């Protein structure tokens, strides 16, 4: 009985640790993918775009990111979108073709284990691409 109690406690700690690590990896992958997809969404909705939801704004990019966060609380995500008229882009506004757009998505990850610190792990990813339309 004593051996079972010790070994089962260790085994449960290992299993729950693996599950929490898997949740953390899933959260990071989802945040990274949302940033990439939002950047892709924004580069085809530049100032020359004539389709619906054009041109992309910080609010529309944030709404798009919220739709790309399955199993996460979208309200907790922080989305920052910046348009740059760096090298090779002399357009005004800076969301013209040839300019760049960068989307940064941040999400606070909380561990659910009682023995782990209650500190928040900030998952963040940035994606940058050149506007095509």
Q: Could you characterize the architecture of this molecule?
A:
The chain is of the alpha+beta class and 133 residues long. The protein has one domain. Helices cover 39% and strands 20% of the residues. The protein is built from 2 helices and 3 strands. It has a 3-stranded antiparallel beta sheet with strand order 1-2-3. The termini are far apart.
Distance between the termini: 69 Å
Helix content: 25-40%
Q: What's the structural domain tally? A: 1
List the helices and strands in order: HHEEE
Major sheet characteristics: 3 strands, antiparallel
Secondary structure: number of strands: 3
Anisotropy-based shape: rod-shaped
Figure out the total of helices. Answer: 2
**Any low-confidence stretches, pLDDT <50, length ≥5?**
none
Mean pLDDT: 89
% residues in beta strands: 15-25%
Radius of gyration: 20 Å
Placed side by side, the strands forming the largest sheet appear as: 1-2-3
Structural class, from helix and strand content?
alpha+beta
Keywords:
133 residues, alpha+beta, three-stranded antiparallel sheet, 2 helices, 3 strands
Mind sketching the topology for me?
Layout: H1 2-43, H2 58-67, E1 78-84, E2 100-109, E3 121-130
Antiparallel strand pairs: 1-2, 2-3
């Amino acid at each position: 009985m004593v051996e079972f109690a010790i070994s089962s406690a260790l085994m449960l700690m290992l299993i729950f640790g693996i599950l929490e690590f898997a949740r953390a990896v899933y959260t990071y992958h989802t945040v990274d993918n949302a940033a990439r997809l939002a950047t892709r969404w924004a580069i085809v909705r530049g100032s020359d775009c004539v389709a619906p939801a054009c041109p992309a704004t910080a609010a529309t990019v944030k709404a798009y990111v919220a739709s790309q966060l399955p199993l996460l609380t979208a309200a907790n995500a922080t989305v920052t979108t910046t348009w740059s008229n760096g090298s090779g882009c002399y357009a005004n506004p800076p969301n013209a073709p040839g300019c760049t757009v960068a989307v940064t998505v941040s999400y606070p990850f909380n561990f659910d284990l009682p023995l782990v610190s209650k500190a928040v792990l900030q998952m963040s990813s940035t994606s940058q691409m050149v506007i095509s339309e």
